[in-house]
Amino acid sequence: MNNFTIQLYRIIVPKYFRRKIQAKRLPVSIFSYYKNHPEALSPEIKSVLTYLKTNTIAIFPYSFQHDYCQEDVEVYDDDETGLRYVLLDGKRLYFKRRWGTKKIQKLHSILLKEQDIQSPHRYLSEQFGFNDGDLLIDAGVAEGNFALTMVEKASKLILVEPDREWLEPLKATFAPWKDKVVIINKFIGHKTGPVHTTLDDIVPPMATGIFIKADVEGAELALLKGSKKILTEHRDLKIAICTYHRENDEKELTEFLSQYKFKISPSRGYMLPIFDKKMRAPFFRRGLIRAKK
Q1: pLDDT tens digits, residue range 77-94?
Q2: How far apart are CA 156 and CA 210, in angstroms?
Q3: Among candidate residues 239, 238, 253, the one with its CA nearest the CA of residue 286
Q4: Cis omega before residue 282 (within 30°)?
């Protein structure tokens, strides 16, 4: 299709039906590609294809996702703030003021899937953990689910989020620990300005034990380019950085971090980025890479 045809298709065909059509067409394209490119098959890919033979397409093409049902998520109203929240590890996780119960249930269900022990989007592993007293920098914190699970172990948390709507719920979520939490409402990347910052700008000069979690909607390489000082100078450093937003992120981010002598490993399994309108073969992407030195 040319661009005009694609735009017309999106205008005429409702989103619900476009998803239904995609759910039927995409598996055909995936199986056709790997049938014609058997050299691209690996045990991990074969596992995903086996799943897709009997299940509909999903961002996490694994059976563990069926353990989570959004209707099971309990959403509470906070009369004091007027915000809604869920309980995560017994702590309140707040959401945007305008969001209703069903949207919160859907999002939180996805967040739980993301950090399932079998998920390709899980930040931690048995060999890659968060230590007591670490400084956490959460770039692209959004609602703050990962930061909240680490808040009691961290010596300090620096939360970076450009979406102003998240500021109110973030302040409510981290109010009990406000003395050690800093929230920065800026885009994070490779430049500094009124609405932009870099990791080199925000990391304290003498900090040790730094854990960086980065999920910044495809700006991960720019974030690393704005981190050359800390990548060079700091030794006790861990980075969990997402690689599923763009097709070549895993390769490019791995090559960039390799220059700084990091030990790098990808998360297990693959994600199917059905949200990416430019998605093409070979279709599957690693959720993230973990780097430490």
Answers
A1: 999 999 999 999 999 999
A2: 10
A3: 253
A4: yes
What backbone phi and psi angles, to 5 degrees, belong to 184?
A: -115, 115
- Residues 251 and 92: their CA atoms lie apart, in Å, by 37
Q: What is the pLDDT of residues 112-158, one digit of tens each?
A: 999 999 999 999 999 999 999 999 999 999 999 999 999 999 999 99
CATH homologous superfamily of domain 125-292?
A: Vaccinia Virus protein VP39 (3.40.50.150)
Task: Kindly list the domain boundaries of the chain, sorted by start residue.
Answer: 3-65, 125-292
- 145 contacts: CB under 8 Å, gap ≥ 6: 88, 93, 111, 115
Of 110, 123, 104, nearest to 60 by C-alpha is 110
DSSP string across 89-151: TTEEEE--TT--HHHHHHHHHHHHHHTSTT-TT-S-BTTB---TTPEEEEET-TT-HHHHHHT
Please work out, in degrees rounded to the nearest 5, the angle formed at the alpha carbon of residue 114 by the alpha carbons of 197 and 118.
130
Q: Are 113 and 72 in contact (CB under 8 A)?
A: no
Spatial neighbors of 70 by CB under 8 A, at least 6 apart, are: 102, 105, 106, 108, 109
Scanning the structure block, which residue is given the tokens 């039906």?
17
- For residue 288, list its beta bridge partners: 242
Q: At what angle do helices 15-36 and 43-54 cross, to 10 degrees?
A: 140
